[in-house]
Design goal:
The complex is a heterodimer of chains A (about 325) and B (about 200). With about 325 residues, chain A is of the alpha/beta class. Chain A is built from 11 helices and 9 strands. The radius of gyration of chain A is 19 Å and the shape is globular. Chain A starts with 12 loop residues before the first helix and ends in a 15-residue tail after the last helix. In chain B, helix 2 links the parallel strand 2 and strand 3. The termini of chain B are close together. Chain A: Pathway: Pyrimidine metabolism; UMP biosynthesis via de novo pathway; (S)-dihydroorotate from bicarbonate: step 2/3.
């Protein structure tokens, strides 16, 4: 494995399967009376959040504490200093404190990469979401949820998602979750289809390892999992569709549409959900919806990533990445 | 298992000191000893330490069932995340921890491993057990005790005491993993400086 986790595209198939298998073991810790392991005792991890987050931040903190790491939470809201400089200052402060790993969320795409490659800090950097770029641990927890549900916790060990058909629906343009998922699911052998209004499909999507469709109803019956994406108003600076109602009618998932999916197919959502927009309450509360499970799995996946990057004196060994280009 | 007992450094050809029938006889004897000491082994839970300890635990469980006529719960206990040498190398791949449905609370937990060497693995296993529950007692069964303890730990049931030097390697092979049953004694090329 590489020293940092910046992008899901950095992971080889072996890296990804190792993380998923390790997370399976971590998940068992949650069933114990003492939900704690001594593995990262004496290691200091800093959660550096330049952007709001509930789920990811709590999840990383829970994972770090379950592995007995010392946790420093740093919330940098409303900094007026230019991003590069403030990030550098913060990084050098952390370096001076002697942190062993940095988990960073930033509204600027590329900030974690800058931190990892700038030489300002020597610790491994884990990307907890940067702008519209990447959110690798979210893609990993999604893949973990799919593997558990579609193959099984035990039967899935060592397996990838070869041949599974996964559909991502909604605001792909602004979604780092979608980008990470396309990269990782492709690495794991799944067939990915993006469904979105034409205005929310990114430029250059033809170079992504996936199909694109504008017709949700045609894709649903051929999907093993359907991941609904939130419309990210906070990143929008223009009108991308006429009305919410029209968006919901064409790209929202309701009970009627869910009935067209195969019996075994999952409904996924990275959260936070906007009920009534991309997903109805009926679907969100159904047995096929894995939202709550995804949150629980997020802790296991982040424990696995932290262990594999920090548990030894170097990241876990997996097969070297083969050049694909 | 202790790190060096399955040493993969360059070695001279290892010679078998125990073969399949020897191992089977030892496990049968250990099973009888367990029944005798645990007064029927009513509340015994076997936990094998991956990798080969798990296979030995399963074999012991089968023999205990033959003797007592009752199924004995058997599981596995991975100690990787409790090791004291994690920082000496790359992060290790985790093995399976599988606690039987009966749990370990108030029971006699019998840890099973292939080679007892420094004792650090068993120390880690005791720590791991403490996070899982509170057994009534913990006992240890090993196929081979090669000596060189670094902690005050001893086995309750030993297949064979095998006095070794630190320049030697002990490798247990089991059919389930290696295709045959044997205990191999080899000699390291490298000096044993700082080994555990």
């Amino acid at each position: 494995m590489k020293r940092h986790l910046i992008s899901a595209a950095d992971l080889t198939r072996d890296d990804a399967v190792l993380i998923l298998d390790t997370a399976e073991e971590m998940a068992r810790v949650a069933d114990r009376p003492i939900k704690k392991l001594p593995t990262l005792r004496g290691r200091t991890v800093c959660n550096l959040f330049f952007e709001d987050s509930t789920r990811t931040r709590i999840s990383f903190e829970a994972a770090e504490k379950r592995l007995s790491a010392d946790v420093i939470n740093f919330a940098a809201k409303g900094s007026s200093v230019s991003k590069g400089e403030s990030l550098k200052d913060t990084a050098q402060t952390l370096e001076a404190m002697g942190v062993d790993a940095v988990v960073i969320r930033h509204s600027a795409s590329g900030a974690p990469y800058r931190l990892a490659t700038s030489g300002w800090i020597d610790a491994p950097v884990i990307n907890a979401g940067d702008g519209t770029h990447q959110h690798p641990t979210q893609a990993l927890l999604d893949a973990f949820t799919m593997r558990r549900r579609l193959i099984g916790p035990d039967a899935g060990l060592g397996q990838d998602l070869a041949g599974r058909r996964i559909t991502l629906v909604g605001d792909v343009l602004h979604s780092r979750v979608a980008r990470s998922n396309v990269d990782l699911l492709h690495t794991l052998g799944a067939e990915v289809t993006l469904v979105a209004p034409p205005t929310l499909v990114p430029v250059g999507v033809e170079n992504w390892p996936c199909e694109v469709s504008y017709d949700l109803d045609a894709v649903l019956p051929k999907s093993d999992a359907v991941m609904m994406l939130r419309v990210q108003r906070e990143r929008m600076n223009a009108a991308f569709f006429p009305t919410e109602r029209e968006y919901s009618r064409r790209y929202g998932l309701d009970g009627e549409r869910m009935a067209r999916m195969p019996g075994h197919a999952l409904v996924m959502h990275p959260g936070p959900m906007v009920r009534g927009m991309e997903i109805t309450a009926e679907v969100a509360d159904s047995d096929r919806c894995t939202v709550v499970e995804q949150v629980a799995n997020g802790v296991s996946i982040r424990m696995a990533v932290l262990y594999l990057l920090l548990g030894g004196n170097e990241p876990a060994l997996t097969h070297p990445r083969t050049e694909e280009k | 298992m202790d790190a060096s007992s399955s040493d993969t450094t360059a070695q001279l050809p290892a010679r078998p000191v125990l073969e399949g029938p020897d191992i089977a006889r030892m496990l049968t004897r250990i099973a009888h000893e367990i029944v005798e000491r645990a007064k029927g082994a009513d509340d015994v839970v076997l936990l094998g330490i991956p990798t080969r300890g798990v296979f030995l635990a399963r074999r012991l469980a089968a023999k205990l069932e033959e003797i007592t006529g009752r199924a004995v719960p058997v599981g596995s206990l991975d100690i990787t995340m409790y090791r004291d040498d994690l920082r000496l190398g790359p992060a290790r791949t985790l093995a399976r921890t599988d606690i039987p449905a009966e749990g370990i609370e108030g029971r006699v937990v019998l840890l099973v491993d292939d080679v007892l060497f420094s004792g650090r693995t068993i120390r880690a296993a005791l720590d791991a057990l403490g996070d899982i529950g509170r057994p009534r007692a913990v006992q240890l069964a090993v196929l081979v005790d090669r000596g060189h303890r670094e902690l005050p730990i001893r086995a309750d049931y030993v297949g064979k005491n095998l006095p070794t030097s630190l320049r030697e390697t002990v490798k247990v092979q089991l059919t389930e993993e290696d295709g045959r049953d044997a205990v191999l004694l080899g000699v390291k090329h490298t000096a044993p400086a700082g080994e555990r």
